[in-house]
Design brief:
The structure is a single chain. By secondary structure, this protein is of the alpha/beta class. The chain has a domain of about 150 residues: P-loop containing nucleotide triphosphate hydrolases (Rossmann fold, 3-Layer(aba) Sandwich). Helix content is about 35%, strand content about 25%. Strands 6-9-10-3-11-12 form a 6-stranded mixed sheet, sandwiched between helices. A 4-stranded antiparallel sheet has the order 2-1-4-5. Strand 1 and strand 2 form a beta hairpin. Helix 5 crosses helix 6 and helix 6 runs parallel beside helix 7. It is globular.
């Protein structure tokens, strides 16, 4: 089972040119089923994120949002049972996590880990060298790296002292999230996945993080694609999504324009939950395509 596929406007191009544009700019998730140990969490998720699009994935706790992020970045604790994920036309699931990152996929974690003994500067220099295709034992020149990171620190209004600190060691929640945004800025991903980056932040910190993401989006010429995973709609007041999706029980059950996030902010998830339960009951009984209100469920 999977949700229906949304339609997006495309530039009018044909033949090989159209194929090149489509393959070079898409992250395509098709009917993805994934589990942890014996528990199935994703139950047929489908989603497409293209260059220049900002998608918001919302849903209550336990709906499968963070599981999707972990699968996309290759967390070995999550086993894909069915479905496929294509990135630039290639099988993403066949790639090692570092290969995914080198090809331009980035994730800002909900709970960033500490790396004692490794400074932010050393970590960033190693990461950006790999991202830019340097040989395994080679690094970007120190002068070039310093020029790059200073520009990003200034652009994001980050305290330069963070570069001399160990990665996330002793960082506050807000500092960890800003450090993730700095990493994103230095690596310049083509598709960025933000897994509840706003979790645990106060309003001022959310604004700072959102401003950083918006600056990166603009500096990319509005070509960076993003999947913003969040439980609450407040960050979407500052990062304007192209498309909003709601996940329940491992499925994306409804999608809409930015106004859908505003509606959820007003009524919460209860209304969507009631529609979802109605559809689930009907499908269990008859196994056909069903919809109730905004919620859809399609059996292929």
């Amino acid at each position: 089972m999977s949700n229906s596929v949304q339609n997006y406007s495309r530039p009018h191009v044909t033949g090989k040119v159209e194929r090149r544009i489509r393959l070079d700019t898409e992250l395509v998730i098709k009917d993805l089923v994934a589990q942890v140990e014996d528990k199935v969490i994703l139950k047929g998720a489908s989603l497409t994120v293209r260059s220049g699009e900002i998608h918001a994935l919302m849903g209550p706790n336990g709906s499968g949002k963070s599981t999707l992020a972990n699968v996309l970045m290759g967390n070995p604790f999550y086993q894909v049972v069915k479905g496929e994920v294509l990135y630039k036309g290639e099988d993403l699931l066949a790639m090692a996590p570092d290969e995914r990152a080198r090809k331009g996929l980035f994730i800002a974690f909900q709970y960033p880990v500490s790396i004692p003994g490794v400074t932010m500067a050393s970590f960033l220099r190693t990461a950006v060298s790999a991202r830019r295709g340097y040989d395994k034992d080679a690094l970007m020149s120190l002068a070039e790296f310093q020029k790059l990171v200073r520009a990003k620190v200034e652009e994001l209004q980050v305290d330069p002292a963070v570069l001399g600190r160990y990665v996330n060691e002793g960082f506050s929640g807000g500092e960890k999230k800003r450090a993730e945004i700095l990493q994103m800025a230095v690596l310049e991903p083509e598709i960025a996945i933000m897994d509840e980056t706003d979790s645990g932040l106060d309003v001022d910190a959310v604004k700072i993080v959102a401003a950083g993401v918006n600056r990166m989006y603009e500096s990319s010429g509005r070509k960076m694609g993003a999947l913003v995973i969040t439980h609450y709609p407040r960050i979407l007041k500052y990062i304007k999504p192209t498309r909003v999706h709601v996940m329940f029980d491992g499925r994306i059950v409804t999608s809409g324009e930015a106004e859908l996030a505003e509606e959820l902010d007003q009524i919460g998830y209860d209304g969507i939950r009631a529609q979802y339960e109605q559809v689930a009951a009907e499908v269990a009984g008859e196994g056909e395509v069903r919809s109730a209100g905004k919620v859809f469920w399609v059996k292929h």
